[in-house]
Amino acid sequence: MPSAFKSNNTVLGSSWHALAILGLNRITLSGDLGLRLLWHIMHLVVSIWYFVLGLTNTLESFFISSGLFKRYRCLDISKVQYLAVVIDSEEARETLKVLELLRWLAAIGLKKVCLYDEEGVLKKSKEALTLWLKSERMSKETTSDQLFEQKYMSLEVISFSDSKHAVAKAANFLFKKHYLSANTEKPKLTEPDMADALEALGYGALEPDLMLIYGPARCHLGFPAWRIRYTEMVHMGPLKFMKFGAIIKAIHRFTTVHQNYGT
Amino acid sequence: MENKEHTLVTRLVGSLVSYMRRFLFRVLSVGPVPNHLAFILDGNRRYAKKWNLGEGMGHRAGFLALMTLMKYCYELGVKYVTIYAFSIDNFRRRPDEVQYVMDLMLEKIEGLLKEESIVNQYGVKVLFIGNLKLLHEPVRIAAEKAMKATSNNNQSILLICVAYTSTDEIVHSAQECCDEIRSSMKVNEEKDVKSDLIKLGDIERHMYMGVAPDVDILIRTSGETRLSNFLLWQTTDCLLYSPKALWPEIGLRHIVWGVLNFQRIYPYLEKRRKKQL
C-alpha cells in the first residue's frame, strides 16, 4: 500500500511538473507572440510613415520640376564639379532608365559624371550609353566648334574592381617600386604615393563632390574608398521611381552645405 | 524628509523609464539587431554655441551623450561600437582647441578604467584605432594602458578612432603588407618578383579595423551627409543614417529609428552579403 501510494504521488508530482512546464511554455509562447505582434505594429507604423513621406516627396518633386519654387529655379551647378551616381546592380540592368537619368543630368548642365554599380552591369552598358551621348551631341552640333563640344558630359563608368581590388594592385605597384631595390632602408609610404600608384595603374583620381544613390538603401555599395573622403551622399530611392525634381533638390541642398574639412 | 521623498520618486521614475526602455529593446530584438554600430560625433561646437556654453563644454556634453548611447547599444545587444573621436584632419584646428580635446581625452580615458564606469559594468574591451604615434604622449600612454586593462573583457567591444582617417588606414595597411612580404623574402628572390604577391585579403587583414566585422549602421549627427574620411573601406554594405540632431542631443529615439531602418533593409543587405561569399 505505501509503495502504491508513493508511486501515485510520484505520478501526480510528475503530472503537476509537466503541467507547470506546459503552462510556462504557453505563457512564454504568448509572450513571444505578443512581442512579435508589437514588433510588426512598430514596422507597420514606419511603413505608413514612409508611404506618406513618399507621397509628399512626389508632390514636391512635381512642383520643383514645374518651377513653382523660386529657390530651385537658379541652381549654381558650377559647385558640382564631379557627380557620382551609385546604382544597385539589379536596378542598373534597366539601361533605358539609366539613359533617361543621364539625359536629365546633361539637361541640368552637369559636365562630369561617374556611374558606379558593384557588379559591373553599367560597364557592359557603357558602350550603349556612350553611343547615346555621342548621337545626342551630333544631332545638336551644327559646327565643329571645340567650345560647343565641351558643353557635353564626360562619363566615367566603374565597378567594384576599381575599388578594393585597385588598392591591392596599387600596394603591389608600391612594393615593386619602393621595396625591390638594393636599398635596405625600410621605405615609408605616404598618401600621395598611394594616389600616384592608383593613377599610374589607370584608376580614376577625381573625388566626387556629390553622390546620388539609387537603390533600396542609403549605402555607397563599395564605391572606391579613396575617392569619397568628403563626398556628400544622398539617397534617391529606387531607380524606377526616380524624379527630376528630386535631383534638383539634392543639388540645391548640396550648394548650401559648408564643409570645415575637419578644422 | 521632502528630499528623501523626492529621491524616492526620482528613483522610481528612473526605474520605470529603464524598464520601459528594456522592454522596447526586447520588442526590437524580435528582428535582426545590428552587430556593429559606428558614430561620427559631429556637432559639439555647434551645441556649445547654440546654448551659449564655453567652447570646451560642447565636447563635455558630447562625452555624456556618448556614455548614454553606449549604455543603450550594449543593452540592445550590439557587440561592436566604433566612434570617430579625433580625425587626423582635426590636428589642423587651433592649437588650444587640440590641446583641450587631448586633455579631455586623457581625463575620460582614465575615467573609463574606474570600477564604476560603463566599461566594467558591461564588460567592454576598449581598443584605440588609428595612427597612435600622432597623439600627444600622455594620451597615447593612457590609451595603451586602457587597452591592456580591458584586454580580458569579452562581452562587447568599444573601438575609439583617434588620429584616424580611412586614407591613412589604407596606406598603413599597404605598408604593413609590403613589410610582411619583404621580411619573408630571401635576398635573391627579390629580383624574380613578377606576380602580385599582395592580395585583397592581406590588405583587409592589416587594416586597423581588421579587429572588427564590417559596420552595419553608421550614424553621423548634425544632418551632415558625408563620411569625412571615416570607415570608407568598412561601410560597403552599411546603412548610412544622418539625423539632424547635434551629437550632444542624440538619444534613444535615434537609435531606435536607425535600428528599425536597418531591419527594413536587412533582407537586401543579407542577399548582397550572400552574393559576395
TrEMBL record, chain A:
UniProt xrefs under InterPro entries: Nus1/NgBR, UPP_synth-like_sf
Main subcellular localisation: endoplasmic reticulum
Keyword check for Cell cycle: no
Subcellular location(s) of the protein: Endoplasmic reticulum membrane
EC number, as in UniProt: 2.5.1.87
Pathway: Protein modification; protein glycosylation
Domain of life according to the entry: Eukaryota
Sequence intervals crossing the membrane: 40-63
Sorted UniProt keywords: Endoplasmic reticulum, Magnesium, Membrane, Transferase, Transmembrane, Transmembrane helix
Cofactors that this protein relies on: Mg(2+)
SUPFAM superfamilies named among the record's database cross-references: Undecaprenyl diphosphate synthase
Keyword Glycoprotein: no
Record field: catalytic activity: n isopentenyl diphosphate + (2E,6E)-farnesyl diphosphate = a di-trans,poly-cis-polyprenyl diphosphate + n diphosphate
Enzyme kind, highest EC tier: transferase
Family: Belongs to the UPP synthase family.
Protein name in the entry: ditrans,polycis-polyprenyl diphosphate synthase [(2E,6E)-farnesyldiphosphate specific]
Species this chain originates from: Rehmannia glutinosa
Lineage, broadest ranks: Eukaryota, Viridiplantae, Streptophyta, Embryophyta, Tracheophyta
Automatic annotation (TrEMBL), chain B:
Record-listed E.C. numbers: 2.5.1.-
InterPro entries attached to this UniProt entry: UPP_synth-like (IPR001441), UPP_synth-like_CS (IPR018520), UPP_synth-like_sf (IPR036424)
Coiled coil: none
Keywords: Transferase
Gene3D superfamilies: Decaprenyl diphosphate synthase-like
CDD domains per UniProt: Cis_IPPS
Any single Pfam family the record assigns to this protein: Prenyltransf
Family note: Belongs to the UPP synthase family.
Protein name as it appears in the record: Alkyl transferase
